[in-house]
Design a protein that fits this description.
Layout lengths: L1 E2 L3 H20 L6 H15 L1 H5 E3 L1 E8 L23 E2 L4 E8 L4 E7 L8 H8 L10 E5 L27 H24 L2 E11 L4 E3 L9 E9 L4 E7 L13 E2 L2 H14 L4 E5 L6 E3 L9 H21 L6 E12 L13 H4 L4 H11 L3 E9 L2 E5 L3 E2 L1 H15 L3 E5 L8 E2 L2 H6 L2 H4 L7 H11 L7
Parallel strand pairs: 4-12, 6-7, 11-13, 17-19, 18-20
Antiparallel strand pairs: 1-15, 2-15, 3-5, 3-8, 5-6, 8-10, 9-14, 10-11, 15-16, 16-17
């Protein structure tokens, strides 16, 4: 569904120009209607573009602690070796944050969370929970950081009735806790937008940051873009910051059993401290399917220290970039969602050697699980906010495909900083090129929709770009 420029402004402009045509004809002997209509049309395309595409945006921002109480015995996600053991402590707390944006005719919420991923049914469950407040599915995007020390995704997947420890055992109490938390978060941000909206100015900058990540398949593209979006009140006070950098939060192994947001959590807290003034920093990952972080020099052997140092030092870089960003008040704001059919779900020939072994699965179990755990449809969404675009991808995409999507977004939306929002709204699979899927390996083995999944999702992502008049 396209949410773009308000049609009211176009209609009013056309009506005014039509009156001008009739007035001039009354004072001239020739019928100049065709010529003037052509001039008016050119005006709409060229001279009228700035007023039609730009808008004054207001925002409401909120955050909520989503760390499950330890007595809920929530399993940590990311590693089958943990055998669904519950978290033993809290190293740092997990947070979800939301910014609701509105130009007066439409609204869209960007939601980030210190989560491993969202199971496929979760967003629709959230939409149903928000039914009384009239939120639509295409009006918000859930972006998980992919922390490997957060809640196991299958612990709140209602279709997970198999009781396999390596996969994470369904926990209805955790499920309801998270559903309630995200509902409260969106309602809180929306209420702030309605009751005390903050008119904002926005600016975005992208730099190349080499040496911080690598392609873990030891071949192919490595994504070096760091994108920082500065969102200030028009009065000058900083309100929120969006950070996009592409790498797995995998410094912690299966041996670390405390809740943590990983290096993205340290990044957000450190930058919030540097900026002060209750600024909300929101991190979202990119096409991280084959991207791993590179530890900072001198980090030592402690995995906790590696994660903290990485996040703290990245926050310092972001702070420098943030300080150089110029903001604008009147900017393009639009979004669109495209739903599409997925290929029939199945498992890769290599699965039993890798993921199957890790997660204790068999062919017989997989035949039972696929109808209950894997979606038949998915969607991609793109939101544009000034020079920033975020294209949400429902899984872990290889960075090379993500770069192709970003390049197209830059060209078609005329944005300087196109980004990928990885793990958006749902985790459906790893997403690779056809060649990489055929070659095999870990990432291919946990790609459950065959070799055409990458091309299909790329096409859907390109189709999600909002129509924009250049």
């Amino acid at each position: 569904m396209l949410k773009g420029i308000a049609p009211f402004n176009i209609v009013v402009t056309v009506q005014i120009l039509a009156l001008l045509v009739r007035s001039l004809e009354n004072h001239m002997s020739l019928n100049i209607r065709p010529i003037l209509l052509l001039v008016c049309f050119c005006f709409l395309l060229l001279g009228g573009h700035q007023n039609l595409s730009a808008a004054t945006i207001s925002a409401g921002v909120a955050r909520i602690d989503i760390t499950p109480p330890l007595e809920m015995k929530s399993p940590l996600g990311g590693y089958g070796e943990r055998m669904s053991k519950p978290a033993e402590g809290i190293h740092d707390r997990l947070w979800a944050k939301a910014i609701v944006l509105s130009d007066g005719t439409k609204k869209f919420a960007i939601v980030t969370a210190d989560m491993l991923a969202f199971p496929a049914p979760f967003k629709q469950e959230l939409v149903e929970a928000l039914q009384s407040s009239a939120w639509q599915a295409d009006e918000f995007m859930l972006l998980a950081s992919h922390s490997h020390a957060s809640v196991e995704m299958n612990a709140f997947h209602p279709g997970n009735s198999f009781g396999i420890p390596q996969m994470g055992i369904y926990n209805p109490e955790v499920h309801q806790f998270l559903l309630s938390s995200f509902k409260k978060l969106l309602l809180s941000a929306d209420q702030k937008l309605k009751e005390s909206p903050v008119q904002i100015c926005v600016g975005t900058s992208t730099i190349e940051l080499e040496g911080w990540n690598r392609n873990r398949r030891k071949e192919g593209y490595t994504e070096h873009d760091l994108t920082v979006t500065r969102i200030d009140a028009v009065s000058g006070e900083p309100l929120a910051v969006l950070i996009n950098f592409t790498a797995h939060p995998t410094f912690m192994s299966s041996q670390q059993m405390w809740f943590s947001g990983g290096w993205p959590g340290h990044l957000q807290r450190t930058l919030e401290t540097l900026l002060g003034n209750d600024v909300t920093v929101m991190y979202y990952n990119g096409a991280e399917g084959d991207q791993s972080p590179v530890p900072r020099p001198g980090s030592g052997e402690s995995r906790w220290e590696k994660a903290e140092r990485y996040g703290v030092e990245l926050a310092k870089v972001c702070h420098e970039v943030w300080g150089q960003i110029e903001t604008e008040a009147d900017i393009p704001f639009q979004y669109q969602t495209v739903e599409f059919e997925l290929p029939p779900a199945n498992w890769h020939p290599d699965f039993m050697k890798t993921g199957g072994s890790e997660y204790g699965l068999s062919d017989a179990l997989l035949r039972q699980m696929i109808p209950k755990l894997f979606a038949e449809k998915a969607h991609c969404s793109t939101v544009q906010l000034g020079d920033l675009s975020i294209t949400g991808i429902p899984g872990e995409m290889a960075a090379g495909i993500g770069e192709e999507i970003k390049r197209s977004a830059g060209e078609k939306l005329h944005v300087k900083s196109p980004t990928i929002g990885g793990l958006a709204d749902a985790w459906i699979s790893y997403i690779l090129t056809e060649e990489a899927w055929m070659k095999g390996g870990y990432e291919a083995s946990v790609s459950f929709y065959g070799p055409q999944l990458g091309p299909i999702i790329k096409e859907a992502a390109l189709s999600s770009f909002p129509n924009f008049v250049p």
